[in-house]
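Re: the 219-residue chain
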Amino acid sequence: MKLIVFDCDGTLVDGQHLILDAMQSACRTCDVSYAGDEAIRQIVGLSLMEAIGICYPKENEKTHLALKDAFVARFQELRLQDEIDEPLFDGVREVLEQLHGEGYLLGVATGKSKRGLIITLENHGLRDYFLTLNTADDGPGKPHPSMLLAAMREAGVAPENTLMIGDTTYDIEMALAAKVRAVGVSWGYHDRHKLVQSGAHYMLDHIFHLRRVLDEAFL
């Protein structure tokens, strides 16, 4: 069996609008200067506390915790108001349907919470395609290999039969740490050059190009 593990934000869905809104709101609530949209995009994929620590290194732990709580509150508020703007990237649904139909095992490894991930997948009708879901709730976040190792255990698949697909250097570093081949995507939040420098074995400019990667990786 072959396992393909996807990142979520920046790879399957474009969730930046919710993330940026929630962080801007959190900064206003906590009277902290907003780090800027680009700085926030660069930490998408990390666990929330680690991301806040990177963006606001001069703030103390109490402020970090307050930012986290305010971020979560605003994020949940947006969901309750049905102001959910997490569109699938072009071609994602079609490719997932095809892979699932061909018998590939599919998983997700994401910095989202388990609740947030399930909401996202269910909103798009994709929950049933995935055998394994690993999130920031389950242990160390990216780039630690924990989530990817758990996905392989759950699927019963070895590293040589696994691919990790993501848009950030954290995804690439996680894959390398788990001895899994890493596939970078150019449509997410980290640019192509960073992904290649981090050690991506393959690069995709569109999800439809995944077929060529699979044919080469799983000869």
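The longest strand covers residues 105-109.
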